Amino acid sequence: MRMVGVDERRARLGIRHHLAEQSESTVAVVSDMVGLHSSDPATVFLSSRARVTSLKVSDLESDLYENRSLARVLGMRRTLWVVPTESVTEVHNSSTIKIAGPELRRLANMVEGAGLSADGADWYRKVSEKTLAVIEARGEAMAAVELTKDVPELREQFTFYKADGTVIGRTGASTRVLFALAAEGRVIRARPRGSWVSGQYRWAETADWLGAPIPAMPKGAAQVEILGRLLLGFGPITEVDMAWWTGWTKGDVRIALRNLKAAEVETDIGPAYLHPQDLEPVTASTSWVAFLPSLDPTTMGWKERGWYLGDHAPRVFDRNGNAGATVWCDGRIVGGWSQRPGGEVRYRLLQDVGTDSSNAIEREAGSLQTWLDGTTVSARFPAPLDKLLAGQTPN
What we know:
With 395 residues, the protein is an alpha+beta fold. It has 16 helices and 14 strands. It is globular, with a radius of gyration of 22 Å.
């Protein structure tokens, strides 16, 4: 069994993730990464900026909202992703569609628990059809402004309690209904109301936005497609990594591995897999540094992260496993970065990287600040080092 050591894994990461050498195409980058995390809207733009030569915000906005070669969809691990539009079918049928059933049952229970209807499923059917009719009539619609005005049922609130009756949270019916419709593949997030850092999206009918409904595809075939692309971008990758990244059962992962005829290799943490068309050894060709945003797909790409994270997890991940903004050098995390309220990019190295790399990191910090051009990005899930550098916690 071939051994793929840490040095080769880091070399593969730099090359496959377009960090050792940038790409000319955002769509190609997103495809090679399988998708970009979009739970924090700024991540998509900052992840792309790190990998695409001379990227402008307007370039990515054009791909997302004008030519629509990229789409923002619910996908793996119930997470919001930006993926190539040509991959939406595989993402939906491999991962998204299985979210719909449990989500609809959960919503029906909320409706009945709130006393809105004795039949929560019937309530959802009626309200979802009214919601779709409004979106169709408007073309696109904002949930908080237009949809709740035209569909009064969406204004309802679901309240959650502790066992002792203490309120622990509330969520709007509009949020739950639109999430369920997205899981069914019937609606999609369109252009946001604000700038590129805004998460207040307009909603459109999926068939209208993409030009056709999402086609049905056998789950197994869709999972082979997604897993194949994951192996090409992230391999070698373990079964634990794959099950965590996809949100699938280990059984589904193993079936897809067999159908793909994936090649088993040895790593420093045990057996892992490569794509059968990607077995040649890879060596690093150049030194590189990068400033990656919170929830970047490289930082979040593996569950077993020691080979690129070292012992920095308590500083650059929050308690729920969300990655903060990180500084990278030659395939490993070496620090973190954030911004002060006025927009100043600040970073801190957590290990020695040598004079040449330190100088390259300083130049990259200046390049990032120039690109941001006064925009201040606040991570939705800040890690401890993010908060420290942003001045939210004392040294």
